[in-house]
Amino acid sequence: MSQARVTVDPSYVVGPINRRLFGSFIEHMGRAVYTGIYEPGHPTADEEGFRQDVIELVKELGVTGIRYPGGNFVSGFQWRDSIGPKDQRPRRLDLAWRSTETNQVGLHEFASWVRKVGGELMYAVNLGTADTKDALDVVEYANIAKGSTLSEERITNGQPDPFGIRMWYLGNEMDGPWQVGHSSADDYGKKASRTAKALRQLDPEVELVASGSSHPTMPTFPTWDRVVLEHAYDDVDYISCHGYYEEKNGDLGSFLASPVKMDRYLDVVIATADHVKALKRSDKTLNISFDEWNVWYLGDNLRSFPRQTDRFYRTDEIEGDNWPEAPRLAEDVYSVADAVVVGGLLISLLRHADRVTSAAMSMLVNVIAPITTEPGGPAWRQTTYYPFAVTSRLAVGVALDVRVESGQYETDELGSVPLVDAGATYDAGSRRAAVFLVNRSLTDSLTVTVDLAKLGDMSVLETQMISDADVYARNTKDAPERVTLQPNTTATYDDGALTVTLPPVSWTAVALG
């Protein structure tokens, strides 16, 4: 059996773990909202029409901030459509996903739902078809206490206190030709800068995210990010990253190394931001908002929609003149291998916790999501639910820069990569530590020795593992618990060393204290 060694030292600190790292995302796309979080006729629906079975799963998942309402949707969204009496709200054709938006869930309703799940509402403004004035209006409506026409309108609409939204996204994926209102980096950078300046005049406490590249494979990456920041660096707090990962052509080895791709992507974005910092001779260090990340089978499960560029849809219901309400879009069914990759992507985010201080797993319910529902029926956890829930719960304090010594394997896409991936966190106040481990080998178990001597005497509090003889095993409506967490019974601690055996294609978390 192969061996690997991981060294954990509390003096090697990456940075504090911001709880926003465990955020998620709800877009008005497919069934994320309607029959996802909101289904008034469902047996578990509360007085506002929200599915309580989904609320409980979201709370268990440990989600913190939730980005809303898009996504591509936001670039054609008129925010006023979603406020006021429901029976007076317009029905709109959504160009992003070629669907009909009923606006039955809007700002007030979603803010109420976020309170129920214990999260933080983060809001994206339309900088595609809308402009600085629209952004100012929605911030005034949401955040100004009283005395202005818009704040008084909010009060009339049933919300006497401000929503107090702190984080605002200045558009979405504006580098993408598929985006309604797509613009050049130069034009968007100017627009983002003047919008940010105006929003700070209205509410100095806002935190602002500039739209970075929508994927590292974009032909304009990273030039887009540099140009945007040359205009807006002094005006914003974050630049965004988006990244999706999938197994292509049966190349499981490359897919399992997806966190290496995330690492390289983040390193380039950070270097680009720091380059602009140096050009401007600025004292400010810009943070990263990785506000869309997940496994998404863009090629295998969806068909290209001809009126868009480089975006994919399930078009069963979207044909001809049909603009359906809440069609089934991008409802990927995730496997054990997908869950192992998600666990690894979370390790990558922890590795960059000094600069990635906000992130959003995209999305939360039904659309490329850890939670799936059936209209009128059950809700269940996908395989990817488990590593997120465990990492959100155990990763507290600071992220540590661990040292990994393991064998390598060759991938077609990324060259030689380590067989073992690892991350660790430590909370000095409670003296709690967590170690996260991935075995990328397709065939062999690995025994990993984790040197924890510098943490002092500890004991194993719990172990959690995702593993299965069938790496493509999935949870479905008919078998919602085919894949669940299981203990890694091999984990032992003795004299400052944790020893764990990792099955092939597996993810393990160990809590110590």
Could you walk me through the main structural features you see in this protein, from its secondary elements to its overall organization?
The protein has helices at residues 52-61, 107-117, 132-143, 149-156, 185-202, 223-232, 252-256, 258-280, 336-351, 385-394; strands at 2-7, 13-16, 23-25, 65-68, 92-94, 99-101, 120-125, 167-170, 207-210, 238-245, 287-295, 303-304, 312-313, 356-362, 371-373, 379-381, 398-400, 403-405, 408-411, 415-418, 420-427, 432-439, 446-451, 460-466, 492-494, 497-502, 506-512. By secondary structure, it is α/β, with parallel strands linked by helices. The strands form 7 sheets. An 8-stranded parallel beta barrel has the order 3-4-7-8-9-10-11-14, surrounded by 6 helices. It has a 6-stranded antiparallel sheet with strand order 2-17-21-22-27-24, covered by helices on one side. A 5-stranded mixed sheet has the order 18-1-23-26-25, with no helix packed on it. A hairpin with a 5-residue loop joins strand 15 and strand 16 (379-381). It is globular and about 70 Å long. The two termini are 29 Å apart. The model is unreliable at 300-316 (pLDDT under 50).
Key structural traits:
six-stranded antiparallel sheet; 513 residues; 27 strands; eight-stranded parallel beta barrel; single chain; alpha/beta; globular
Give me the side-by-side strand order of the main sheet: 3-4-7-8-9-10-11-14
SS content category: alpha/beta
Strand content: 25-35%
Question: What Rg, in angstroms, do the CA atoms define?
Answer: 23 Å
The shape is: globular
The main sheet comes to: 8 strands, parallel, barrel
The chain-level mean pLDDT equals 95
User: How many runs of DSSP E, i.e. beta strands?
Assistant: 27
Helix content: 10-25%
Total count of helical runs of at least 4 residues: 10
Q: Uncertain spans, ≥5 residues at pLDDT below 50?
A: 300-316
Spatial gap, N to C terminus:
29 Å
